[in-house]
Amino acid sequence: MHPRTSDVLVVGGGIIGLVTAWRAAQRGLSAAVVDPEPGGGAAQVAAGMLAAVTELHYGEETLLGLNLESARRYPDFVAELQEAAGGVAGGMDVGYRACGTLAVALDADDRAHLRELHALQHRSGLESEWLTGRECRRLEPMLAPGVRGGLRVDGDHQVDPRRLAAALVAACERAGVVVHRAWAERLVVVRDRAGGVLLKDGTELAADQVVLAAGSLSGRFGGVPDAVLPPVRPVKGQVLRLSVPRAYAPFLSRTVRAVVRGSHVYLVPRENGELVVGATSEELGWDTTVTAGGVYELLRDAHELVPGITELPLTETRAGLRPASPDNAPLLGPTALPGLHLATGHYRNGVLLTPVTGDVMATVLTTGQLPEEARAFTPARFPSPAPSPSLSPVGVS
What is the pLDDT of residue 391? Predict the structure, then answer.
């Protein structure tokens, strides 16, 4: 019996894998996804900030260009995706809100840091407005009286990653993408070319091209030669979800973020009354335990920012793993192994980079070439790693 064959086989059914398969199918390729829980993964934990401007970091100016390009594509992407998934009336609203972001400072040190960020944003040609503490509180009355100043960024928006993932699953199914709800055990290499994957139950799936889009697990996928194994590691993030009763609405009108005692905290208000508070950043390997310390730190910092938060019901605590690369930027496109492509390593920008990643990978899969906006993010920018026991082959979802 011959293995089932497709033009493109995507390993990993998170939002990056799903958008890759959907865009490939739209280009006329037969596409398949392997994942026991498509739509799961980091999207179930992520807050969904589309924060190309307020998430700017020193040394990441090249990544900024890709982030801005993806943010620019988001409105059209959302409209197309919602229609392809069955329409807003059919329950496929992904929660895209052009609400803007307010980054604030609570003490003199944080204010100085925010001033430096403002200067960097302006040098980078970005739009942001410096506000006094009083002006910040006028925009968001729930802010603490001690807020010393802030940056208003009207171009940084939000989306609901859980709804985004559900819409991508539906769009894939309606576009004819075959979804294998199973564990992928290892890559199959035939005559020095990626030829498919072997599932945990022993089933072999053949493909002309394989895309490894397994998030933080991409660096551990079995059968991938050491020379092309992506240098991706997990970074743990704990996130809280609270509910805003109608009596408290409107609690916040936009995303609010700050640095409190050196730790980043953000509050993302949804239109449905949910308030997402995050996120810790912990180098703890594969641990996804929600800890009392992590919950305490998030609530403590959020309370300093918005004191009224302690009155809200706490509805969920979660921990997830961000797929981080050595330079915090994604790995997109062909590897040195013919037939194997990467779409991983998006770190804290996976949701933001979903539109541009889908377009880039569709171009790669149909033409073999990386488009201009993605050439700085080729997997070839990293040297081949030395074999390591920590990268022993395992299956991924």
Answer: 37
> How many angstroms separate the CA atoms of 271 and 318, rounded?
21
State the pairing for strand pair 178-180/31-34: parallel
Q: Are the C-beta atoms of 359 and 332 separated by less than 8 Å? A: no
- 190-228 residue pLDDT tens: 999 999 999 999 999 999 999 999 999 999 999 999 999
Upstream peptide bond of 214 is cis (omega within 30 degrees of 0): no
H-type helices in the chain, by residue range? 15-26, 61-85, 108-123, 133-139, 161-174, 292-305, 354-367
What is the model's pLDDT at position 392?
35
Is it the case that residue 321 has pLDDT exceeding 70? yes
Q: What CA–CA distance (Å, rounded) separates 381 from 379?
A: 5
Tokens of 307: 């004191």
Residues making up the chain, counted from first to last? 397
Specify the pLDDT at position 2: 55
- Comparing CA positions, the residue from 128, 129, 158, 134 lying closest to residue 147 is 134
pLDDT bucket at 385, cuts 50 / 70 / 90: low
Consecutive H or E run containing 110: helix 108-123
Whether domain 4-45+163-231+326-391 has CATH 3.40.50.300 = no
How confident is the model over 94-105, as a mean pLDDT? 96
Helix (H) or strand (E) holding 83: helix 61-85
pLDDT band at 172 (very low <50, low <70, confident <90, very high): very high
> What superfamily would CATH give domain 101-154+234-324?
D-Amino Acid Oxidase, subunit A, domain 2 (3.30.9.10)
| Closest to 376 in 3D by CA, of 339, 336, 330 | 330
| pLDDT at position 4 over 90 | no
CB-based burial label for 205 (10 Å; 0-12, 13-18, 19+): buried
Tokens of 199: 């599932």
Per domain, the residue ranges of the chain are: 4-45+163-231+326-391, 101-154+234-324
